[in-house]
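Title: Request for sanity check on Ion-translocating oxidoreductase complex subunit E prediction

Description:
We are preparing a figure and want to confirm that the structure record we downloaded matches what your pipeline produces today. Could someone re-run it with the sequence below and paste the raw structure tokens into this thread? We only need the token string, no images.
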Amino acid sequence: MNATYRELTLAGLWNNNPGLVQLLGLCPLMAVTTNVVNGLGLGLATLLALVASNFAISLVRDYIRAEIRIPAFVLIIAGNVTLIEMLIHAYFPELYAILGIFIPLIVTNCIVIGRSEAYASKNPPLHAGYDSLMMGIGFMLVLMVLGGLRELVGNGTLFAQAHLMFGEAARGMTISLGTDFKGILLAALPPGAFIGLGCLVALKNYIDKRMAQTAKASQPITRQPLGEAA
């Protein structure tokens, strides 16, 4: 049975978030998230690759033999990622230079391949497209939040490189904690990414636990009628 759109939304954004629950795509998650803009750029590229590839895979799923489905899926994903890479290179050259090899590596990202095999190959196009949209947004949000935390703690700024995506007018978007803030170098280094992601995962687990406790406490207590045997 196909999941409802509400279930797909909750799964992608929270309950089965690729970055916080499935812990997929950790290589770009750790390497690129030095600031918000880098996370947004790679997150959007991954989102577009997910939606385009999974929608296409769902359309042709009945025409691909089971023995060659993975190579066929990879070819479809590679074609979409190549197109996205060319667009980023053409319109956002400075951002492309920063993201570098991590854009073509989307082809082998476990999130994209995993959703194509687990969902797109078994469900109709609209459901597959919506599932990939929610998974992509969930992953992009994790990239942005982690990038924002590392940028804020490491450099004392937010949106410092917004002009790479939004033009020179976006230089005024930069938020700074002041020139006196020296920053914590650890946040800008790879270990800072592991620590930051660990904190986000711990926070999500804590929220889930509190929500479960609240839901359990709000359930009515059923009392056994008098006179019935225990």
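Thanks, this matches our download. The longest helix spans residues 125-155.
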